[in-house]
Amino acid sequence: MNAVTTPRERALVVRDIREFLVSAENLPSPKGTALQLMAIARDPKADVGDAVKVVKSDPALAGFVLRAANSARFGGLVKAVDLHRAVVRLGMNMIRVHAISLSAMGQKPRQACPNFDYPAFWAECLLSGLMAARVAGGPPPRFPPEEAFSLGLLGRIGKLAFATAAPAEYGEILGSPLAPGEAMEQRERARFGFDHHELSAVLLVDWGLPSKLADVVYWQVDPEAGGLQPDSREHTLAGALQLGNCVAEITFRKEIDPTAVATAYLRAALLGLEPAEVRSLAAEAIAELGEWSSLTGISVPTRTLTPALWPDA
């Protein structure tokens, strides 16, 4: 659960995060194509054609965008036959997220963070996004699947920021198993004064994403904790992200985590999904993950890559 609930408390945390970011010598940051797209988004004279030119200049991003726009998540929509239509379909906010994600995936840290598994981190982010997108697409349709997928990709970027900016300190708190009832967020707050959800939200705003989407990331660990109106689009999206995160954690764990399973099924019930539907959607997302792995060059851990780990409800 997020410890910060009042506007004043959150303002103080944001101040602390800003100080952390300013003092950090190394951070995951948008580069190359991602920076160009951020500049286009801020330019009132720019149009879709300008964005398409930038995307075309980056073969990896172009493939990523086409794959996303042609995904089965779009159901009955006509396939995007060209890059221009793909960019229009996804929208500039989501195109920027894809560019930033690919940029961050390709960056090598100056100093590796002990106990932080970089390929596993990105594999979990991809699977989280794929699962959240399937929840979004319904039936019944809840909100645009591309938003859920994109936020799943970058919704935990704060973890990577901790590992990049403070590798020794973060590696230390990752180095021992969590006690019963203990959450990693508690350790992060004790060491840094804020957790990776809060750090993720600030980074996304800095990178040009709308504050409403950053709020979704902020509250994804506990959508009912406050800040999001019940039954709102943002509340539902945060719930889909929480479910996607749980599926990713369960899928890549060596052993079943009963707490993660219980949280997943509870969130699914709040979203109107039966346990059998959750397992079916998880199997579909896992099957698609291999294609995204090939596209991004991210190696997917194979130790538990199977929905069979999901116990029957």
CATH architecture field of the largest domain: Orthogonal Bundle
User: What would you report as the Rg, rounded to the nearest angstrom?
Assistant: 19 Å
- Shape descriptor: globular
Tell me the name of the CATH homologous superfamily of the largest domain: Hypothetical protein af1432
Q: Low-confidence parts lasting 5 or more residues at pLDDT below 50?
A: none
What's the total helix number? 16
CATH class of the largest domain: Mainly Alpha
Counted up, domains total: 2
Q: Kindly, what is the distance between the CA atoms of the first and last residues, rounded to a whole number of angstroms?
A: 24 Å
Short synopsis of the structure:
With about 325 residues, the protein is mainly α.
Protein architecture, described:
With 313 residues, the chain is mostly helical. It folds into 2 domains: 7-15 and 111-309, Hypothetical protein af1432 (Orthogonal Bundle); 30-106, no CATH class. The chain has helices at residues 7-23, 33-42, 48-56, 59-69, 83-90, 92-105, 118-137, 145-154, 157-165, 167-174, 184-192, 196-206, 211-219, 233-252, 258-270, 275-296. It is globular, with a radius of gyration of 19 Å.
Summarize this structure as a short list of keywords or feature phrases.
single chain; 313 residues; mainly alpha; Hypothetical protein af1432; 0% strand; globular
